[in-house]
Design brief:
The strands form five sheets. This protein has a 15-stranded mixed beta sheet that branches. It has a five-stranded antiparallel beta sheet with strand order 1-2-9-4-7, with no helix packed on it. It is mainly β. The chain is built from six helices and 30 strands.
Length: about 525
Amino acid sequence: MAQAAKPADDAAQARPAAAIAPNKPQQVAAQATTAPTDILLQGRISGADNQTYRELPFEVPAGTARIEVEFDYDRADKTTIDLGLIGPGEFLGRDGLRGWSGGNKRRFTVSANDATASYSPGALTPGQWKLLLGIPNIRAGRDAAYTARIRLTAAAQSDAVPQEDAKPLRRQAGWYRGDLHMHSAHSDGNCATQSGARAPCPLFLTAQAAAKSGLDFVAVTEHNTVSHLPALRELQPHFDRLLLIPGMEITTFQGHANVFGVRAPVDFRVGSAAVPDWNTVLREMQRRGLPVSINHPIRPSDERCMGCGWTPQPAADIGLVSLVEAINGGDADTPGSGIAFWQRELNAGHRLTGVGGSDNHDAPTAAEEPFGPSRIGRPTTVVHARELSQAGILDGLRAGNVFVDAAGSRDRLLDVRAASGKREVAMGGELAVPAGERARVSVQVRNLAGGRVEATVDGVKRDLIAQPALSSAEQTLEFQWPSDGGRHWLRIDVRDAQGRLALMGNPVYINWR
């Protein structure tokens, strides 16, 4: 027999709607002779709620096996309300955060055996659950009404058991090509349906597109959710030559950052009492041993792209960051590229691996335009790793022997070596070069005949190579760099025959100790 959910505020329920406080949600439960139980939550937000979170509680009785939610609100003047679901436990606990769909879904369901993309399936523990509203934008002086209709039904339950991590797909050391930034139906990825309409894009299509592009690995980085983890576990045995790395794009009002290897939720509510600033998040990721990459750092952060730019307040401790997305999609030669931001942080003394990511939201697309949709694998991040496994790739990213193939080719190579005395290091390595001595630098490039090699020292392009032009499909250039005994970094880029950035190299660090 269906149970009526108990109102959070009995007095409020008894009052007529006009008398209810404008910013307080109203819960109304309707009991029928048979299941289901329907709950109505209504309230209002105002300009004072801009960039805050609100929790709307409702009671889930014992025996509930499915929760269905339909949510709507007044969208005038770019008002935006994002949506998530919290169970009766601690936010990061087993019965806590169950998902976050942001602004891309207005209907979802959660049960013991299945869940809408962006939400995690599992037993529905009885107690007080909460809809989590995030309000990235409502203009001053405006207000907006919202309505949530919740239906509780009873059914059989079962628990899913997580699988162990896959074994290395390849055990040999070498260069592995991948994409570190993409989205599917589990956040805001969408693509064409069979009939030509648009719909949330299945994660399978992401893996399929990556495999067709010849990639060795991808990191699937959904916004503020880990609901894609069961799908990755399902897909990995089929894609036995493509490593699927679980990731998350931590998406806040003050910037976005990818975290790689994540297998549990991350509290993303930067600016709230629970997560006062980005440093709280970064320290927690450090404690969990997960590398963090700042995404598209100089994008706008306004109504054009809410929270997209890197604007942490107070300033984030970059010493807690491992990577910077220097190239996002097709922005390599545009003002939106993150290369300048990355180089400024290198000059400030931070060792950061520069990476690239397609930020793909439409797996089948082959679009190539800057700042627009980009195909999976453009750009490609190429990592020298001991093996093709999650641990191998993440350790390789931290080590920094990495280059970015801006066009996402399958065969271009940039291998940089620097030596002093008997010591030789690759990109990401540290080399001591006393004052008055010279570092010997070797640059190997493949499949860019007609292009040219550029050297950058401390953010400034330097004419260090006597003959920088590339005349053959495979070529090695050598030059020497005179040391003044100070701390410097040196990196190599390669441009194609049309002058476009083709390969972006990572630094060799000179005299950093």
